[in-house]
Amino acid sequence: MESKFKKHIELNFAELTVHPLLIAVSGGIDSLVLLQLCHRLGLDITVAHCNFHLRGTDSVLDQQFVEQVCQQLNVPCIVREFDTNAYATTQKVSIQVAARELRYHWFEEVIEQGKSKFLLTAHHLDDSMETFFINFSRGTGIEGLLGIPEKTDYIRRPLLVFTREEIEQYAEANQLIWREDYTNAQTKYLRNKIRKNILPVFKEINHQLDQAFQQTVAHLKETHQMSEDASKMMFEKVVIRQGDDLLFPLKELSELSLPKAYLYKWLEPYGFKAWNDIADLVKAENGKRIPAEHYYLIKDRAHLLLRLKSKMVEEPGDSYYLQENQTIKQPIHLTAKTYDRTKIELTSDSLCAYLDRDKLQFPLLIRKPKKGDYFVPFGMKGTKRISKYVKDEKMTQLQKENLWLLCSGDTIVWIIGSRMDERFKVRSTTINVLKIKLTV
Question: Which of 122, 176, 357, 382 is a plausible cystine mate for 434, CB 3.0–4.6 Å?
Fold first, then answer.
């Protein structure tokens, strides 16, 4: 096993030979074998042991045992003790989840300190098969059937090519001593049920189950990679990037062979899980939104709009001010400058407003639309409600979200970037012109 491990490291984990490593060691057979193999290979290792205080005296003896082994091997050892029961109670999670969260939060802290580059865990092939069956029993996609990955962020799992039997044979041949966790024999846990009751049956049916599983996972990885490639290709073809926003055109989505599957693939990294709600959103009224932790998915006429919550526009009560000959960048980028009427050429540009400066009351107010707002659209005589104007212009949800009004006192001067008010336009009698430019 040592020669196979050495070759495996050289071919697939070369990074472990040039960086300091942290090894998670519980005191059980798997982690003791991993520690022994890494030590004999001469890797730069530090042992990390978690004492969860869940098994009374046994937890204390586990810690003492690991410390003793490290002392014998002359390997540095760091220990963290946890009040796992208290954490599980306060966080309202199971003991298993609590222990997992506590240990990986600590491991991550140690790695971030920079003394170790990678964390090594002793997961092996049987663990990966158990994970396969756990995910299969709960319902999953291809990713859930890939077992345990060899590399995830800073974590490396170099024993995944070895079976539990190989590990036991190595431990016995090298007369290793380890600690047994009696909870591993308790079938009240799903993983233990699969380990004790399911895998033995499959191994009896197929004595080469290990090889068959590895071959199946290899095929699934290839299929998964093809789906990843197709997803990326269709993303670039269909999805529109607009600043920090993503727009998913409904027409193009409907023409895909599996629109729901593509949406799942594209939106899952952003924290969306409510897939039935997302499917319903396609047929929902404009403006309806579905939240994730940091994002909103919004129905916007002909699109689904993905936007960061932090980028959502301010509430209607928020307001800002613009002085003459000033540039502001919040909430939008505006520049105001006064000119002599005879020294400026008026152009037709929706991003610019040319106003009769002497009819304005400073500072000009910038705010969101509110119920009952109205103005006199440029070129017209009568008033029109802003809500009616927005509807007639067929503004998208994105445009409505970004709509700001420029006001002189209580009077609307400009729907910024869209339409001026007739009452403030430059006339033949105008002496001073205020040019306001919107920068997008």
Answer: 357
Q: Can you give the C-alpha Rg of the chain in angstroms?
A: 32
Average pLDDT of the residues in 414-432: 95
Query: Each residue of 129-147: pLDDT tens digit?
Result: 999 999 998 888 888 899 8
Cβ-contact 404, 416 below 8 angstroms: yes
30, 159 contact by CB (below 8 A) = yes
**Closest Cα to residue 419, out of 388, 375, 382?**
375
Looking at beta carbons, which pairs linking 234-241 to residues 24 or more positions away fall under 8 Å? 234/262, 235/262, 235/266, 238/262, 239/266, 240/303
Contact (CB, 8 A) for 31 and 24: yes
Sheet holding 245-249, edge to edge: 240-242, 245-249, 303-308, 295-300, 289-291
304-321 burial, b for 16+ CB within 10 Å, e for fewer?
Answer: bbbbeeeeeeeeeeeebe
The CA-atom distances, in angstroms, between 316 and each of 138, 157, 374, 391, 418 are 45, 53, 15, 18, 19
Share of the chain above pLDDT 70, in %: 96
Sign of torsion over alpha carbons 415, 418, 420, 421: negative
Q: Is 74 left (phi over 0), alpha (psi -120 to 50) or beta?
A: left
- Contact residues for 127 (Cβ-Cβ < 8 A; gap 6+): 148, 160
- Residue-averaged pLDDT of the chain: 90
Residue burial 199-234, b: 16+ Cβ < 10 Å; e: rest:
beeebeeeeebbeebbeebeebbeebeebeeeeeeb
Residue pair 249/302 in contact by the 8 Å Cβ criterion: yes
pLDDT at 186 (0 to 100): 65
Report the C-alpha gap between 358 and 324 in whole angstroms: 11
* pLDDT score at 318: 61
The more confident residue out of 400 and 228 is 228
Q: Which single residue is written with the structure tokens 């505006």?
A: 334
- Model confidence at 124: pLDDT above 80: yes
Q: Which residues pair with 412 in a beta bridge?
A: 407
Question: If phi over 0 gives left and psi between -120 and 50 gives alpha, with beta otherwise, what is residue 82?
Answer: beta
Q: What is the pLDDT of residue 172?
A: 93
